[in-house]
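Dear Dr. H.,

I hope your travels went smoothly. While you were away I took the liberty of generating a structure for the chain from your last submission, since the lab meeting agenda had it listed for discussion. I wanted you to have the full record in hand beforehand rather than looking at slides cold. The sequence, exactly as received, is reproduced here:
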Amino acid sequence: MKKYVLFFTMLLWGCMCFAQDKQAILKVLETQRLAWNRGDLETFMQGYWKSDSLLFVGSDGPKYGWQTTLDNYKKSYPDKAAMGQLKFDILKVQLLDKTNAFVLGGWQLQRQSDAPGGYFTLLLRKIKGEWKVVSDHSS
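The corresponding predicted structure, in token form, is as follows:
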């Protein structure tokens, strides 16, 4: 009987940790979305791992580095009008283990003259207790 109680206690604890991590990941993405919609790229970038090893894959192929990613965002979206209003459609959040997660979603910008959109896959890692995007493939 003690084995069953221990098993179910561990299972419940695991589910609670999963739910907390999933909520923390969704909060990172929502904080990024809100910052984008304010035109605040510096705050938006706080969701990314501040490392030269950060990987961003877009239409120009793979690029490495937090600063490179910020510079590319600034070049592609030079002002608030170009940034538009961002919406996410999160399709999947999957914890791979205690410190790694996969996110699949869609994105759409609403701008005065157009409404581009696409999909993204993210790899997030829990670094020093915080979830950070370590790899972003957006198309």
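Two observations you may find useful: The chain is about 40% helix and 35% strand. Strands lie at 55-58, 61-64, 85-95, 100-110, 117-127, 130-138.

With kind regards,
E. W.
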